Amino acid sequence: MKNQLKPTLRGILGSLFSCALRAHSRIYEPSGPIVIIAPHPDDETLGCGGLMALLARKDADLRTVFLTSGEASHRGHPIITPATLGPLRRAEARAALTALGGPALAENALFLGAPDGELARLPEAAHAAVHAILVNTIRLAQPGAVLAPYPWGGSTEHTAAYELARAACASAGGAQLLGYPIWAWWQPFRLMPQLRLGADNLRLPLDASLRDAKKKALACHRSQVQPSPPWPSPLLPSALIERGLSSHEFFFREYVPPRLAPTARNP
Q1: Do residues 210 and 53 touch, judged by C-beta distance below 8 A?
Q2: pTM to 2 decimals?
Q3: How far apart are CA 72 and CA 82, in angstroms?
Q4: Distance CA 216, CA 246 (A)
Q5: Which residue, of 46, 141, 232, 247, has the fewest CB within 10 Å?
Q6: How many CB atoms lie within 10 A of CB 95?
Q7: pLDDT digits (tens, 9 = 90+) for 211-226
Q8: pLDDT by residue (tens digit) across 226-263?
Q9: Domain spanning 2-256 has what CATH number?
């Protein structure tokens, strides 16, 4: 009973915060192109799978960039290793994208191969390489918005991904950056900053067909949503999955200005 109490309370709290966010947000009316930056496979589905499915219906230009392959998710597992998990999670991501928007969405995905668990402390050369690819992707897409995980959700990887996205937006000439919450639903009080006066919150209601597409896509991430024997439980908590498959997606907007070129020094 005790083991079930905490996840149940987290689920109730997440539902309450979702209701509060609905009252403190405006309807999002998206248009493409869109660039989605995900630190790991499954973040794209949990955070903005409904948005992706909606825009795919409209044949909008969607570009998904996975910073890592999520190969470190099963640390300590007696059978699954990073070497086998990386290719598996990339395949799961392609299947999920196909469920959301068809084969073209999967074919257009980029996997940058940055080391999972190291995004906050990438070596200078690796950081520069990731930055360059993100800047080039944003410049080519000229997106209406760039999406990245909400930075205050409790995951250092998600915080690092948001900062990489923000820096790339600035270098690409400025952009609208939307943070999508994921792990904040596991610790809902981390969403408190978005309930302050003046927070620029957007919500996207999902109809039954969009929720169904999102549910099918999340099921493709089997390594995360199903037990990995001998581990008896899935990696993703039920409260987080419940929020991910709820009737609304939320996005927290920031306008990133262009980075000014450094002023030349006088001789």
Answers
A1: yes
A2: 0.94
A3: 6
A4: 14
A5: 232
A6: 18
A7: 999 999 999 999 999 9
A8: 999 999 999 999 889 999 999 999 999 999 999 875 43
A9: 3.40.50.10320
